[in-house]
Specification:
Blueprint: E1 2-10, E2 16-28, E3 31-47, E4 50-66, E5 69-87, E6 90-101, H1 111-115, E7 135-146, H2 149-152, E8 163-175, E9 188-197
Antiparallel strand pairs: 1-2, 2-3, 3-4, 4-5, 5-6, 6-7, 7-8, 8-9
Length: 200
């Protein structure tokens, strides 16, 4: 037995909104332990071109097997984004994030190795195992969205939707109760990336 629910409120002037969604159910057909989470998103248009977004999420799961044994666990996170449209086809933004995985259950590094690990601790993605430790995770991202078709005079309908997104991201981890260095034996990392998407 379980379910999904959500509600949205929007101000009369359409400048502000709040959205709350959640889910609750037993873990599986073989376990009656509870599993649930909720997400709250608040948005406000500071100006016609500037949007502030605050996002909070929290979850819990009962009877989870962790190295300390079976226990009830929780996780929480908050992120805030500020987006500004410089032009119709160009916007910039900054995002700050905090996530607490106090039981070392929700975040494993690297995740591709964790997701490819079977019940006897053999990973099909690497010759080493992922690490999952209680920790606080912090991140700051500076990015841009650019749709270049108009500027470059491209008439193709598909290319009109092309979105190029360069990002600079800084991550830091603080272990809870113990040192944790998941980034090549470091507590932090700096990433620079670019991706391009064409929706269809």
């Amino acid at each position: 037995m379980g379910g999904l629910a959500g509600a949205t409120w929007t101000s009369d002037d359409k400048k502000s909104s709040a959205n709350l969604t959640g889910s609750y159910s037993r873990t599986s057909k073989r376990s009656n332990e509870p599993w649930g989470f909720y997400s709250l998103v608040l948005q406000h248009k500071i100006t016609p071109k500037t949007l502030l977004v605050l996002h909070h999420t929290s979850g819990f799961a009962g009877g989870v097997f962790v190295p300390d044994g079976h226990k009830d666990i929780t996780w929480h996170g908050v992120d805030m984004q500020l987006q500004h449209n410089l032009r119709e086809d160009l916007s910039v933004g900054i995002r700050g994030e905090w996530f607490r995985d106090k039981d070392g259950f929700r975040v494993c590094s690297p995740v591709r190795v964790a997701q490819a690990t079977n019940s006897v601790h053999i990973s099909f993605a690497a010759d080493f195992l992922a690490t999952c430790q209680p920790a606080d995770y912090y991140g700051v991202t500076l990015g841009m969205n650019w749709k270049p078709a108009k500027q470059l005079g491209i008439d193709s309908e598909a290319m009109q939707k092309l979105n190029i997104r360069p990002n600079i991201r800084y991550d830091r981890v603080d272990g809870i109760g113990q040192a944790y260095r998941p980034f090549d034996n470091k507590k932090d990392q700096l990433l620079i990336s670019v991706d391009a998407t064409i929706p269809f």
